[in-house]
Amino acid sequence: MSAGLFALSAGIAWPAAIAAQPPQRTGPPADRQLRAAEAAGLRDFVAVRSSVDRSAIWIGDRFSFIVDVDCSHGTDILTDDLSRDRLQLDELDILGVEETREDRGDGRTVYRFTYRLTTYSFEPAAKRIGEMRLRYYVRRPGQRPEDIEPAGEVVVPATMVFVRSLLPDDANNAKYRSERPPVPRAAALAMLQPIGIGLVIVSIVPAALWMVALQRRWHHRRRRQSVRQLRHDERASLDDVRALDIEAEAGRREAFDRLSALVRRHVTGAWGVSADGLTPAEIVSALSAEGKGEVSAEATTFLDACEKARYGRSEELPSRGACLAAIDQAEQLIGLGRS
What we know:
Helices cover 45% and strands 20% of the residues. The protein is α+β, with helices and mostly antiparallel strands. Helix 6 (249-271) runs antiparallel to helix 8 (293-311), helix 6 runs parallel beside helix 9 (320-336) and helix 8 runs antiparallel to helix 9.
């Protein structure tokens, strides 16, 4: 301890005096007293200040909690004490941390830690950022990180952030509507109500008539194909089927496939029943409902035969003569609808 008193009397800086004095062999009580005296003297060389860039926020707003540390006379801090894991947050979420270090010479180092925070909770209205304990030490030449021994600690002050809301603080006593009775309308305005309702009803009539006319026009555009055009298309389709090579198995399957499509188009165009995607049994029911029961049985039998030829096994495929007979039958069946 005499070396330290001599250093002070000689005008030597206190940290430098501590670094210069040789290690003393003292007992544990004396060692603790020495460390306490050193920590009390060095604490004045570590200045800590905390602040927020916004004192009040809305839900989801981002703000910054800033910690500035000014170390002088060769002191320094353990930056791990200011990591994001050490923050004591009350219903706050941390988005990121930025750290800067500036060496200003003459044993002075300035740190700034910027914590980006936000909140998604209304309660509590006052969000608290708790205080943190920051340890400091004296830098010595050649000192390794694992050899650092903290000389003491300082407190990073706590701070508060308030959440704004358009709702009143006391929801039980809040008045969202006025208790004042409504002002009665003038007599002239009261008479206008039935007039307005009548005008609305009158305006509906033209709109309804326009919708009916539009629907009729739409149905008119969807009218059936003309008989002449239908016959021309069916004749061309039959000629294409007859031109197929029905000696081969693939040719006969294609012929039955086209005959099935031809009869279905005829049922749709001439008899007014949409046969696309229907099974033969469903086509019979639809034809019976349209009063075409006399042709429904023959059409169903023909379509069943086409389905078996299209998807049946090779040994069950109709012969060339049966394929020609099916073409003639399709032509007769189509002729039944041309009345």
